[in-house]
Protein backbone atom coordinates (compact mmCIF):
# COMPACT_ATOMS: atom_id res chain seq x y z
CA UNK A 1 0.00 0.00 0.00
CA UNK A 2 1.24 3.51 -0.85
CA UNK A 3 2.14 5.65 2.10
CA UNK A 4 -0.01 8.71 2.70
CA UNK A 5 1.62 11.94 1.51
CA UNK A 6 2.05 15.21 3.37
CA UNK A 7 0.41 18.62 3.13
CA UNK A 8 0.97 22.01 4.71
CA UNK A 9 -1.91 22.77 7.06
CA UNK A 10 -2.35 26.51 7.25
CA UNK A 11 0.43 29.03 6.78
CA UNK A 12 2.12 28.83 10.19
CA UNK A 13 4.46 25.92 9.45
CA UNK A 14 2.44 22.85 10.45
CA UNK A 15 2.78 19.82 8.17
CA UNK A 16 0.44 16.84 8.50
CA UNK A 17 -0.51 13.70 6.63
CA UNK A 18 -2.88 14.44 3.72
CA UNK A 19 -5.49 12.35 5.52
CA UNK A 20 -5.89 12.23 9.28
CA UNK A 21 -7.55 9.87 11.71
CA UNK A 22 -10.49 10.94 13.87
CA UNK A 23 -10.25 8.94 17.09
CA UNK A 24 -13.59 9.82 18.74
CA UNK A 25 -15.46 6.63 17.78
CA UNK A 26 -12.84 4.45 19.46
CA UNK A 27 -14.01 5.63 22.88
CA UNK A 28 -17.32 7.47 22.69
CA UNK A 29 -20.57 8.49 20.99
CA UNK A 30 -20.63 5.69 18.38
CA UNK A 31 -21.61 2.90 20.75
CA UNK A 32 -19.54 1.38 23.57
CA UNK A 33 -15.76 1.91 23.78
CA UNK A 34 -13.77 -0.47 21.60
CA UNK A 35 -11.08 -2.79 23.06
CA UNK A 36 -7.99 -0.77 23.94
CA UNK A 37 -5.56 -3.31 22.50
CA UNK A 38 -7.32 -3.26 19.12
CA UNK A 39 -7.46 0.53 18.99
CA UNK A 40 -3.75 0.88 19.81
CA UNK A 41 -2.99 -1.62 17.02
CA UNK A 42 -5.17 0.46 14.65
CA UNK A 43 -3.37 3.69 15.58
CA UNK A 44 0.02 2.05 15.05
CA UNK A 45 -1.12 0.70 11.68
CA UNK A 46 -2.27 4.19 10.67
CA UNK A 47 1.11 5.68 11.63
CA UNK A 48 2.96 2.97 9.70
CA UNK A 49 0.86 3.85 6.63
CA UNK A 50 1.78 7.52 6.96
CA UNK A 51 -1.42 8.75 8.66
CA UNK A 52 0.18 10.87 11.36
CA UNK A 53 -2.46 13.54 12.02
CA UNK A 54 -4.39 12.15 14.99
CA UNK A 55 -7.46 14.00 16.27
CA UNK A 56 -9.04 13.70 19.73
CA UNK A 57 -10.74 15.88 22.38
CA UNK A 58 -11.08 15.98 26.16
CA UNK A 59 -14.86 15.45 25.79
CA UNK A 60 -14.42 12.10 24.00
CA UNK A 61 -15.17 9.69 26.81
CA UNK A 62 -14.91 12.15 28.50
CA UNK A 63 -11.14 11.92 28.89
CA UNK A 64 -10.76 8.24 27.96
CA UNK A 65 -9.86 8.88 24.30
CA UNK A 66 -6.96 11.12 25.28
CA UNK A 67 -5.74 8.46 27.73
CA UNK A 68 -5.95 5.86 24.93
CA UNK A 69 -3.87 8.06 22.63
CA UNK A 70 -1.35 8.64 25.39
CA UNK A 71 -0.80 4.89 25.63
CA UNK A 72 -0.71 4.42 21.85
CA UNK A 73 1.92 7.15 21.38
CA UNK A 74 4.51 5.59 23.69
CA UNK A 75 7.69 5.45 21.62
CA UNK A 76 6.14 7.02 18.51
CA UNK A 77 5.26 10.52 19.74
CA UNK A 78 7.75 12.21 17.41
CA UNK A 79 6.09 10.59 14.37
CA UNK A 80 2.68 12.21 14.81
CA UNK A 81 0.92 15.56 14.70
CA UNK A 82 -1.33 15.39 17.72
CA UNK A 83 -4.52 17.47 17.84
CA UNK A 84 -6.88 17.75 20.78
CA UNK A 85 -9.61 20.15 21.84
CA UNK A 86 -11.11 21.90 24.86
CA UNK A 87 -14.23 23.92 25.49
CA UNK A 88 -17.13 21.49 25.91
CA UNK A 89 -17.63 20.81 29.62
CA UNK A 90 -20.59 18.50 29.10
CA UNK A 91 -24.30 18.48 28.35
CA UNK A 92 -26.63 20.46 30.61
CA UNK A 93 -30.40 20.19 30.02
CA UNK A 94 -29.76 18.75 26.57
CA UNK A 95 -27.52 21.67 25.57
CA UNK A 96 -23.77 21.86 25.35
CA UNK A 97 -22.07 23.65 28.24
CA UNK A 98 -19.26 25.55 26.54
CA UNK A 99 -16.49 27.47 28.28
CA UNK A 100 -13.73 29.74 26.95
CA UNK A 101 -12.71 31.36 30.22
CA UNK A 102 -8.90 31.83 30.44
CA UNK A 103 -8.54 29.85 33.68
CA UNK A 104 -10.55 27.01 32.14
CA UNK A 105 -8.45 27.11 28.95
CA UNK A 106 -5.26 26.72 30.96
CA UNK A 107 -6.61 24.02 33.28
CA UNK A 108 -7.95 22.06 30.27
CA UNK A 109 -4.60 22.23 28.50
CA UNK A 110 -2.67 21.06 31.57
CA UNK A 111 -5.12 18.17 32.05
CA UNK A 112 -4.88 17.11 28.39
CA UNK A 113 -1.07 17.20 28.48
CA UNK A 114 -1.19 14.89 31.50
CA UNK A 115 -3.69 12.43 30.00
CA UNK A 116 -1.86 12.35 26.67
CA UNK A 117 1.41 12.05 28.59
CA UNK A 118 3.16 14.57 26.34
CA UNK A 119 5.04 17.84 26.91
CA UNK A 120 3.41 19.70 24.05
CA UNK A 121 0.22 19.49 21.94
CA UNK A 122 0.82 20.12 18.24
CA UNK A 123 -2.62 21.58 17.43
CA UNK A 124 -4.94 22.75 20.20
CA UNK A 125 -8.50 23.65 19.21
CA UNK A 126 -11.28 25.51 20.91
CA UNK A 127 -13.91 22.82 20.30
CA UNK A 128 -16.91 25.14 20.39
CA UNK A 129 -17.03 28.92 20.73
CA UNK A 130 -18.15 30.29 24.09
CA UNK A 131 -20.47 33.11 23.08
CA UNK A 132 -20.49 34.51 26.64
CA UNK A 133 -16.81 35.47 26.45
CA UNK A 134 -15.14 37.55 23.72
CA UNK A 135 -13.04 35.34 21.48
CA UNK A 136 -10.14 37.76 22.02
CA UNK A 137 -10.05 36.82 25.71
CA UNK A 138 -9.90 33.08 25.01
CA UNK A 139 -7.29 33.60 22.30
CA UNK A 140 -5.16 35.67 24.67
CA UNK A 141 -4.74 32.65 26.94
CA UNK A 142 -4.08 30.29 24.02
CA UNK A 143 -1.39 32.69 22.82
CA UNK A 144 0.28 32.44 26.25
CA UNK A 145 0.22 28.64 26.01
CA UNK A 146 2.03 28.88 22.65
CA UNK A 147 4.62 31.21 24.16
CA UNK A 148 5.14 28.78 27.04
CA UNK A 149 5.69 25.87 24.63
CA UNK A 150 2.67 23.89 25.83
CA UNK A 151 0.99 24.05 22.44
CA UNK A 152 2.50 24.67 19.00
CA UNK A 153 -0.49 25.78 16.92
CA UNK A 154 -3.99 27.09 17.62
CA UNK A 155 -7.18 25.85 15.97
CA UNK A 156 -10.88 26.65 16.13
CA UNK A 157 -13.79 24.30 15.53
CA UNK A 158 -17.21 25.32 14.21
CA UNK A 159 -16.57 29.07 14.36
CA UNK A 160 -18.29 31.74 12.28
CA UNK A 161 -16.40 33.84 9.73
CA UNK A 162 -16.46 36.93 11.97
CA UNK A 163 -15.19 34.97 14.99
CA UNK A 164 -12.39 33.47 12.87
CA UNK A 165 -11.28 36.96 11.80
CA UNK A 166 -11.32 38.31 15.34
CA UNK A 167 -9.42 35.32 16.70
CA UNK A 168 -6.84 35.45 13.91
CA UNK A 169 -6.14 39.11 14.72
CA UNK A 170 -4.99 38.10 18.24
CA UNK A 171 -2.80 35.15 17.16
CA UNK A 172 -2.68 33.33 13.81
CA UNK A 173 -5.12 30.45 13.56
CA UNK A 174 -3.50 27.43 11.91
CA UNK A 175 -6.58 25.29 11.26
CA UNK A 176 -10.34 25.38 11.35
CA UNK A 177 -12.16 22.12 11.97
CA UNK A 178 -15.65 21.77 10.54
CA UNK A 179 -18.06 19.23 9.17
CA UNK A 180 -17.64 19.00 5.38
CA UNK A 181 -18.89 16.23 3.17
CA UNK A 182 -21.17 15.67 0.21
CA UNK A 183 -24.16 16.23 2.47
CA UNK A 184 -22.71 18.99 4.71
CA UNK A 185 -21.81 21.89 2.45
CA UNK A 186 -23.08 24.99 4.26
CA UNK A 187 -19.48 25.94 5.10
CA UNK A 188 -18.67 26.64 1.45
CA UNK A 189 -20.49 29.99 1.43
CA UNK A 190 -18.57 32.05 4.03
CA UNK A 191 -16.32 29.88 6.19
CA UNK A 192 -14.10 28.24 3.56
CA UNK A 193 -13.43 31.52 1.66
CA UNK A 194 -12.55 33.25 4.96
CA UNK A 195 -10.07 30.50 5.85
CA UNK A 196 -8.46 30.71 2.42
CA UNK A 197 -8.19 34.48 2.58
CA UNK A 198 -6.41 34.26 5.95
CA UNK A 199 -4.21 31.24 5.13
CA UNK A 200 -5.98 28.94 7.59
CA UNK A 201 -5.95 25.18 6.92
CA UNK A 202 -9.22 23.25 6.81
CA UNK A 203 -9.78 20.00 8.72
CA UNK A 204 -12.94 18.21 7.60
CA UNK A 205 -14.56 15.94 10.17
CA UNK A 206 -17.29 13.40 9.31
CA UNK A 207 -16.29 13.48 5.61
CA UNK A 208 -18.29 10.25 5.13
CA UNK A 209 -21.51 11.69 6.56
CA UNK A 210 -21.09 9.78 9.84
CA UNK A 211 -21.01 6.48 7.99
CA UNK A 212 -23.85 7.19 5.55
CA UNK A 213 -21.57 7.24 2.51
CA UNK A 214 -19.95 3.97 3.60
CA UNK A 215 -23.03 1.78 3.66
CA UNK A 216 -26.05 3.98 3.01
CA UNK A 217 -29.28 3.42 4.96
CA UNK A 218 -27.94 0.06 6.20
CA UNK A 219 -25.60 1.98 8.52
CA UNK A 220 -28.43 2.40 11.06
CA UNK A 221 -28.71 -1.39 11.46
CA UNK A 222 -25.37 -1.31 13.29
CA UNK A 223 -26.23 1.55 15.66
CA UNK A 224 -26.16 0.39 19.27
CA UNK A 225 -28.54 1.76 21.90
CA UNK A 226 -26.13 4.52 22.98
CA UNK A 227 -24.98 5.59 19.51
CA UNK A 228 -25.77 9.29 19.33
CA UNK A 229 -26.41 9.10 15.57
CA UNK A 230 -29.75 7.45 16.38
CA UNK A 231 -31.04 10.92 17.29
CA UNK A 232 -29.76 12.81 14.25
CA UNK A 233 -32.56 13.92 11.86
CA UNK A 234 -30.97 12.50 8.71
CA UNK A 235 -30.96 9.01 10.18
CA UNK A 236 -34.68 9.04 11.07
CA UNK A 237 -36.71 6.56 8.99
CA UNK A 238 -38.75 9.18 7.11
CA UNK A 239 -35.59 11.04 6.01
CA UNK A 240 -33.37 8.00 5.54
CA UNK A 241 -35.66 6.54 2.92
CA UNK A 242 -35.45 9.76 0.91
CA UNK A 243 -31.69 10.08 1.34
CA UNK A 244 -31.24 6.50 0.12
CA UNK A 245 -31.60 7.73 -3.45
CA UNK A 246 -28.53 9.99 -2.99
CA UNK A 247 -26.48 7.06 -1.71
CA UNK A 248 -27.68 4.86 -4.58
CA UNK A 249 -26.45 7.40 -7.12
CA UNK A 250 -23.11 7.85 -5.34
CA UNK A 251 -22.83 4.06 -5.38
CA UNK A 252 -23.54 3.98 -9.14
CA UNK A 253 -20.75 6.49 -9.86
CA UNK A 254 -18.38 4.57 -7.56
CA UNK A 255 -19.12 1.32 -9.38
CA UNK A 256 -18.40 3.07 -12.67
CA UNK A 257 -15.06 4.28 -11.31
CA UNK A 258 -14.09 0.98 -9.70
CA UNK A 259 -14.05 2.27 -6.12
CA UNK A 260 -16.32 2.08 -3.08
CA UNK A 261 -18.93 4.77 -2.32
CA UNK A 262 -16.98 5.80 0.78
CA UNK A 263 -13.80 6.20 -1.27
CA UNK A 264 -15.70 8.34 -3.77
CA UNK A 265 -17.21 10.57 -1.06
CA UNK A 266 -13.82 10.95 0.61
CA UNK A 267 -12.09 11.64 -2.71
CA UNK A 268 -14.59 14.46 -3.27
CA UNK A 269 -13.39 16.12 -0.03
CA UNK A 270 -9.73 15.60 -1.00
CA UNK A 271 -10.43 17.28 -4.34
CA UNK A 272 -11.55 20.48 -2.57
CA UNK A 273 -7.92 21.57 -2.36
CA UNK A 274 -4.47 20.90 -0.96
CA UNK A 275 -5.35 23.00 2.10
CA UNK A 276 -7.99 20.45 3.20
CA UNK A 277 -7.27 17.48 5.47
CA UNK A 278 -10.21 15.13 6.04
CA UNK A 279 -10.09 13.09 9.25
CA UNK A 280 -12.41 10.11 8.76
CA UNK A 281 -12.80 8.06 11.90
CA UNK A 282 -12.81 4.29 12.01
CA UNK A 283 -12.29 1.43 14.43
CA UNK A 284 -11.35 -1.20 11.82
CA UNK A 285 -8.04 -1.63 10.01
CA UNK A 286 -9.77 -2.70 6.77
CA UNK A 287 -11.80 0.53 6.76
CA UNK A 288 -8.66 2.56 7.40
CA UNK A 289 -6.99 0.88 4.41
CA UNK A 290 -10.05 1.62 2.29
CA UNK A 291 -9.99 5.28 3.35
CA UNK A 292 -6.33 5.54 2.31
CA UNK A 293 -7.41 4.18 -1.09
CA UNK A 294 -9.54 7.31 -1.57
CA UNK A 295 -6.33 9.28 -2.12
CA UNK A 296 -5.80 7.38 -5.38
CA UNK A 297 -9.30 8.12 -6.75
CA UNK A 298 -9.04 10.89 -9.34
CA UNK A 299 -12.16 12.89 -10.19
CA UNK A 300 -12.70 15.00 -13.30
CA UNK A 301 -14.45 18.40 -13.03
CA UNK A 302 -17.48 16.75 -14.66
CA UNK A 303 -17.56 14.01 -12.01
CA UNK A 304 -17.20 16.59 -9.24
CA UNK A 305 -20.14 18.54 -10.68
CA UNK A 306 -22.20 15.36 -11.00
CA UNK A 307 -21.58 14.45 -7.36
CA UNK A 308 -22.38 17.95 -6.17
CA UNK A 309 -25.63 18.12 -8.12
CA UNK A 310 -26.96 14.86 -6.71
CA UNK A 311 -26.01 15.76 -3.12
CA UNK A 312 -27.16 19.38 -3.14
CA UNK A 313 -28.78 20.70 0.05
CA UNK A 314 -32.31 20.41 -1.35
CA UNK A 315 -31.63 16.78 -2.32
CA UNK A 316 -30.87 15.81 1.29
CA UNK A 317 -33.69 15.52 3.79
CA UNK A 318 -33.28 16.24 7.51
CA UNK A 319 -31.35 18.99 9.24
CA UNK A 320 -27.59 18.61 9.48
CA UNK A 321 -25.76 17.94 12.73
CA UNK A 322 -24.59 21.53 13.21
CA UNK A 323 -28.03 22.93 12.35
CA UNK A 324 -29.55 20.58 14.91
CA UNK A 325 -27.09 21.62 17.63
CA UNK A 326 -27.28 25.34 16.91
CA UNK A 327 -26.88 26.24 20.58
CA UNK A 328 -23.14 26.94 20.14
CA UNK A 329 -23.16 28.25 16.56
CA UNK A 330 -23.74 31.98 17.16
CA UNK A 331 -22.36 34.39 14.59
CA UNK A 332 -20.95 36.91 17.04
CA UNK A 333 -19.16 36.77 20.37
CA UNK A 334 -19.69 39.67 22.81
CA UNK A 335 -17.84 42.94 22.38
CA UNK A 336 -14.74 43.43 24.52
CA UNK A 337 -16.37 46.54 25.94
CA UNK A 338 -18.96 44.34 27.66
CA UNK A 339 -16.35 42.08 29.22
CA UNK A 340 -15.83 42.91 32.92
CA UNK A 341 -13.72 40.03 34.19
UniProtKB/TrEMBL annotation:
<protein>
    <submittedName>
        <fullName>Probable aldo-keto reductase 2</fullName>
    </submittedName>
</protein>
<dbReference type="GO" id="GO:0016491">
    <property type="term" value="F:oxidoreductase activity"/>
</dbReference>
<keyword id="KW-0521">NADP</keyword>
<dbReference type="Pfam" id="PF00248">
    <property type="entry name" value="Aldo_ket_red"/>
</dbReference>
<dbReference type="GO" id="GO:0005737">
    <property type="term" value="C:cytoplasm"/>
</dbReference>
<feature type="domain" description="NADP-dependent oxidoreductase">
    <location>
        <begin position="23"/>
        <end position="310"/>
    </location>
</feature>
<dbReference type="InterPro" id="IPR050791">
    <property type="entry name" value="Aldo-Keto_reductase"/>
</dbReference>
<keyword id="KW-0560">Oxidoreductase</keyword>
<dbReference type="InterPro" id="IPR036812">
    <property type="entry name" value="NAD(P)_OxRdtase_dom_sf"/>
</dbReference>
<dbReference type="InterPro" id="IPR023210">
    <property type="entry name" value="NADP_OxRdtase_dom"/>
</dbReference>
